[in-house]
Amino acid sequence: MELTLTHYLALSAVLFSVGTAGVFLRRNLITVLLSIEIMLNAVNLTFVAAGRHYGVVDGQVIAFFVMTVAAAEAAVGLALVISLFRHKESLSPDVFTSLKW
Amino acid sequence: MIPPLDVVLFYLFGGAAVASSIAVVTQRNPMHSVLMLIASFLALAGLYINLDSPFTAVTQIIVYAGAIMVLFLFVVMLLNAPREDVASPYGPAYITLTTGPRKVFALLSVILLIELAFVMRQFVSASQSSGPAAAGHVSSVREIGIAIFTRYSLAFEATSVLILVAMIGAVVLAKKKL
């Protein structure tokens, strides 16, 4: 038995689906952001595993950039959560309906 | 017969990552979710080391578990809202399957998983001929540094602008009055 790229891709697919389910099912904005982080990590795992498989460092470089984008996204997302919480005293995405037609 | 060490480590860390990610989604208290996500990131760092990528593993721990998760913890504590908003017109459950759209979306994530598995099978049968790659220079931090500062230097510089914009944006958004 030997580890192949398939093992890592399967694990990544499972993690990505867990993150997707979290985004769709949870009713807490912070947990939704956490689920997005899970999805980004699943993608990172794919990049690193594929880079290893093809023997290039580009996978790790892209993973590095994904981490930077995740940091920026977390900062802006959490600032939005704080300012939304200040308006409605709630973290549930169902409360913020002022843009609903 | 004892399986090789990397296989054992893969299943150990992979199982830990999946289990803690599921715990993040099903946990009621956001504080516990954040802590479970840190566990998931540590398991992923183990997987990166298993993949001969120590640089990514260390970056994962320092940037993700160290910086981003601390930011999340700060916000969770700052907002002081450990429970989910139960007083919602859609019902009391914190993971709701009661409303129509949520059922559809839960189904969508299952479909996504099946789809990913299907695509992966195609991909693997297409690339079966290429054997295990020589993983000699993949683990070298020097190679990564050369790649970042030569081929990816434009993206690297663009990243600094992105971080600046995110920083200003976060301050502007979270400030009470400008």
Summarize the entry for a quick read.
With 101 residues, chain A is mainly α. Chain A is built from three helices and no strands.
Roughly what is the average pLDDT of chain A, rounded to an integer?
88
Shape of chain A: elongated
Instruction: Characterize the main sheet of chain B.
Output: none
Low-confidence stretches of chain A: none
Q: Could you give the count of β-strands of chain B?
A: 0
**Oligomeric grouping of the chains:** heterodimer
Distance between the termini of chain A: 56 Å
Distance between the termini of chain B: 67 Å
Strand content of chain A: under 5%
Shape of chain B: globular
Average pLDDT reading of chain B: 82
Helical content of chain A stands at over 70%
Give the chain pair forming the largest contact, with residue counts. A-B, 74 and 91 residues
What gyration radius of chain B follows from the Cα positions, in whole Å?
A: 21 Å
Report the total helices of chain A. Answer: 3
Structural class of chain B: mainly alpha
Largest sheet of chain A: none
The helix count of chain B comes to 6
In N-to-C order, the SSE pattern of chain B is HHHHHH
Helix coverage percent of chain B:
over 70%
What does this protein look like?
The complex is a heterodimer of chains A (101) and B (178). The mean pLDDT of chain A is 88. Chain A has helices at 5-25, 29-54, 58-88. Chain A starts with a helix and ends in a 13-residue tail after the last helix. In chain A, α1 runs antiparallel to α2 and α2 packs antiparallel against α3. With 101 residues, chain A is mainly α. Chain A is built from three helices and no strands. Chain B is mainly alpha-helical and 178 residues long. Chain B has six helices and no strands. At the A-B interface, α1, α2 and α3 of A face α1, α2, α3, α4 and α5 of B.
